Every structure is written in C-alpha cells, then in structure tokens.
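Memo to structure team: turn this sequence into structure tokens by end of day. - J.P.
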Amino acid sequence: MTRKDIAAGQNSHDCRTPAEQGAERRTGWVVDLTLAAMVVELAAGWLTGSMALLADGWHMGSHAVALGLSVFAYRFARRHARDPRFSFGTGKVSPLAGYSSALLLAVGALWLLLESGHRLLNPVQIHYGEAIVVAVLGLLVNLASAWLLGGAHDHHHRGHRHGPMDYHRRAGISPAVGHHDHQDHNLRAAYFHVIADALTSLLAIIALTAGLVFGWGFLDPLMGIAGGLLIARWAWGLARDSALTLLDAEDQDATAAAIRQILEAEDDVQVCDLHLWRVGAASHACILSLVTHRPQPVTHYKSLIADIPGIDHLTVEVQQCHDETCLPSDAKCNANDSRYC
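Reply from structure team:
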C-alpha cells in the first residue's frame, strides 16, 4: 500500500451534515427573535407596571438560555470538528446538548405542575386582559420560532432519510427494514422548547378567554397541569433517545445484518465480531473481524460494503483460518485460540 493510499484511507472527523449547518443558522435566528421579544416584554412590563408582562419576559429569557445551549453545541461541534483530541469527531455534542435540554424541559414541566397545582388549591386574581395580550405575543413569537426550526427539521430528514439502497438488495434485506432516521437530537430539543412554549401559550389563551367570558378561573391551572404533563412526556422521550446515542445503545440490527450478509456472501468468509455505533447524526463507526482460509486485502472487504451509507469510520480485521472449517458466525473470534483460527 502506498503513502497515497494510506492518506486516502484516513477518515475526516467532521461528521456534520449540510442540514446541521442550516439548523445552526436557524437556531441562531430563533435565539435572536426570543431575546428581542424578551426585551420588548420587560420594557412594556416596566412601563405599565404589569407583573404578567415582566414574568413572561423573564420566562422568555430562560427560553433563550435553553436555545442558546443548542447554538453553543452546533458551534462547538463546528469549531472542533477536526480536533484530533476527539477520536470520532464531535458528532455526539448534539445528543449531549439534547440530553441537557431534556433535563431543562423536565425542570420546566415540574415547575409548571407544582405552580398549577398550587394555584388550583389557592386561586389568585387574574388580570385577564393583560394576561391574554402576553399569551398572544408569546404564541406569535413561538409560532415564528417553530416555523424556523421546523423548516430545518424537515430539511434534515429530507437530506438524510434516503441513502443508497443497493446494499439492501445485495444483502437480501427489504429497504424498509434497513431504513433509519438520522435524528439531530440538538435540533429536536430546540424544536421541543419552542413547541412547549407555544403549547403553554395556546392553553393559556383558551383558559384565560374562558375565564374572561364565563368566569371559569379554574381552567387556568388545569390547562397548566395538562401542559406540564405533555412537556414532561416530551422531555422523557428526548432524554431516552439522546441517552441511548450517548451510550452507544441504539438499535442498528438491520444495518449490521446487511454488513454481515454482504461479507458472508463471499466464498469462505465468516464475520465473527461486529460493532456498529453512531458518531454523528448521519455517521457511524464500525469495527469488524472476519476469518477466511484465503485472505484478501482489507481494501477488498471494505469495497464490498462501500455502498452502505453513513459508515465513515470503518476498521476491518482479517484473520486466516488454518482449520478445515471456519468457525460458526455466532462464535466469538479469538486469534489466540487454536480451536478457531
């Protein structure tokens, strides 16, 4: 193998996709929009003496902090994408930010449930006119934010949902079985934040309008409890999915089966060990070991699975089998064990 071949075989650690770069820009716009709304509400609250406006202004501030975490994650991943200290790049910064945002969502849901329960048991006087204005303003800001992030979310799935499907046909696997959504947990977290705020504002408008028209003041805390439970469910789902990515515990059985079947379709080849895990929204690392009586160059085996999309870090170990028959594919490969190799 020449030096040129070695250089060509080196993998870039930049696991970011064009969709993630677009998501970074859109999330930055949402942070700017949220900060502008916060300044307007704080100024209006100070001038009018409205505690409702002041409270919602500070709420917008906490919302901006959570979204700022998403922007920080994107920028950190971009700036350190080629940093050799990160063995497989910075692809897991996104799920780490998503997990952190899930914790913030859970704290917000808990506060909403506790405060709503307290107000249900101890009703307070509500200034419906001012409160409705604040809720409508918050809803408009969050709808605009959701539209911005939703566009990035849709583009992310369109850009990475479909990859080369030839490997499914070669492995005899239905494309639907091998299909994976490449989720950007960071974008998903930011999207959930604005949707949660929009839901809270919408429920508040419904409850406040009913209270203003019919005098049903109890609906306000009940809507708060309903919103808190739904946000808590979103937080749990986001924390679970991002934690699985962080712990390399995602279900990659279909892709792993495709790799195994393509390689074992070759005469006298057995895959005895295979590890596959996600290192970015649309990027995976794979380490596999195979045994054969007639070893071929490693590049030959890599070329067989080159059509499988998203495998950006591939390590193949080839061991020569000296026994009459190679080990069963479900056995553990051990180069030091004469029973196997």
